[in-house]
């Protein structure tokens, strides 16, 4: 009976140590560590089954690698996550966009849709930016129109980001792909809107 009691004390100590380790890793990831530190943290996470299965920790690790210009490592972490949601997909899309892998961001978005994950007001600005940066007007309009129809353009984040950055670029792209003079575009329309262009 004595051994059972001491074993339970040991288990409690291990749980506390594991929780402290997790807290320390999270705090370090939040401080934008360098790549060398990231690799050490990543190694520690992989070696602990509890940490390795923690999706929120994986998201923080993805963000940290992406911030250090490592979308390839970010993608490896993404690929090992079996149950994906829009947060995880958004981190991957943003990683690609912030590191100028615009086509990969668009492909990730399409993959996200194909797997049944619904985009949100954080997804669309990144995808619109990828679309405009890759000079893909048609895809940008395809993305923006459903966003407007769903009311996502009314959301502060999507409204500001998409309309001030990506929408202006999409309009510029449209103007550069048309033979009309800029002042002729939208002539005769009651209300000019990106979905009517």
UniProtKB/TrEMBL annotation:
Annotated PPR repeat ranges: 85-119
Protein name listed in UniProt: Pentatricopeptide repeat-containing protein
An example Gene Ontology biological process: RNA modification
GO molecular function, one term: RNA binding
Alphabetized InterPro entries for the sequence: PPR_At4g14850-like_plant, PPR_rpt, TPR-like_helical_dom_sf
The entry's keywords: Repeat
Keyword presence, Repeat: yes
Record-annotated membrane-spanning stretches: none
Record-linked Gene3D superfamilies: Tetratricopeptide repeat domain
């Amino acid at each position: 009976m004595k051994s059972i009691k001491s074993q339970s004390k040991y288990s409690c100590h291990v749980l506390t140590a594991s929780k402290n380790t997790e807290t320390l890793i999270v705090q370090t990831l939040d401080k934008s560590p360098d790549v060398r530190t990231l690799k050490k943290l990543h190694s520690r996470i992989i070696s602990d089954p509890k940490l390795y299965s923690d999706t929120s920790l994986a998201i923080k690790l993805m963000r940290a690698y992406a911030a250090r210009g490592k979308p390839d490592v970010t993608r490896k972490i993404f690929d090992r996550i079996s149950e994906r949601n829009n947060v995880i997909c958004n981190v991957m899309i943003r990683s690609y966009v912030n590191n100028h892998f615009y086509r990969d961001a668009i492909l990730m978005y399409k993959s996200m849709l194909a797997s049944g994950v619904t985009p949100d007001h954080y997804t669309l600005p990144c995808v619109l930016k990828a679309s405009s940066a890759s000079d893909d007007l048609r895809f940008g309009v395809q993305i923006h129109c459903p966003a407007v129809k769903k009311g996502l353009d009314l959301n502060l984040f999507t409204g500001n980001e998409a309309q001030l950055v990506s929408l202006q670029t999409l309009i510029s792209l449209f103007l550069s792909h048309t033979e009309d003079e800029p002042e002729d575009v939208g002539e005769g329309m009651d209300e000019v809107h990106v979905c009517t262009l």
